[in-house]
Structure prediction request, 356 residues.
Amino acid sequence: MEKRTEKGLNSTVFFILKDFYFKSPFSPLCASLVTGMLLANCEWLFFCVSAFISLLGLFCISKKVGAKACFLALIFAALGYWNASKILNPKLGKDHISQLSLEEITKVEGYTFKPSDLSMQRTTIYLEVKRAFVNNKWIKVKGRLKLNYRGKLQLNQGAFIRVKVKLRKPTGYFNPGSFQYHKYLQRQGILVIGSALSPPEILNTSKSTLTLIREHYLYALSFASPKTRGILKALILGQRDEILQDVRELFQITGVSHILAVSGIHVSVLFLFSTYFVKIILKWLHINISKNILTFLSLPLVWGYIYLVGGPPSALRAGLMFTTTVFLVSFYRPFSAVNNLFIAAFFILLINPSSL
Prediction:
């Protein structure tokens, strides 16, 4: 009797797993990609867990773990390993800024590859360096910097600046198992950090349309009260630097602080409004189109908003899930929210392995 019960339980568990993997066939492939990335990071415990999930998924999808399934898993694992190795073991040329004598560098020029992060009394600048001032002359260099500036400063993505700096290489803690700050930065392609000794000098004056939209929105918020301005800035742009401390604590106590980060709820609301907006415009122009094409026309507005807020992983995940759903529905294909989630995770990790 016990053997029958155990056998029935095992059959039920296998059926549930098989149904899950059939509805989300991308999950074992995504797990294979993560397995390769964890192998490159030497995270052995998580590597074993991810490999088990990948093989279990392939076993459930196929009747048995055949050569094709194993070959497919190996391809995605190798892709993940190669993608992560490019970041963990980069091939640096002589013109990379980390290969120079950092003490001799007094100024740098470059583009901000992401918006600056603001705290109460400090600004973090993320810079893609193009030139460095060494021994009284400018030389061309490559690499990324993370600079700290004492003071409040708002720099949008793509700003070309010149700044006086004091640079150094990041170091990690020597305690086993502790957080390794230098490896965290390395996964983002940052091998040099430092301090900005003066306010950055903005060299370029040309601004993109989205940058102008962001600046106009911030200008409109300048007329609001400090409490309202901080909340609206966080809700729309995901920038939480101006939220008052008592307001921040209220959001944390009530458990709704997650709405201050740009995520799926923001993209969902924008998608609905953009679809309605496009529908009104087409109706005004007396253009009749199907609902599928209407949703396609709304996607550029969604991705424009994601670019406007700096493309955080949560917004990218929501945008990819929406895009995948729109494509599947438009071509009358069955879709699963879980499978769309794994598709989004796969492409995010493929493009930016540091998101793991």
Summary: The domain at 97-202 is CATH 2.40.50 (OB fold (Dihydrolipoamide Acetyltransferase, E2P)). The chain has twelve helices and eight strands.
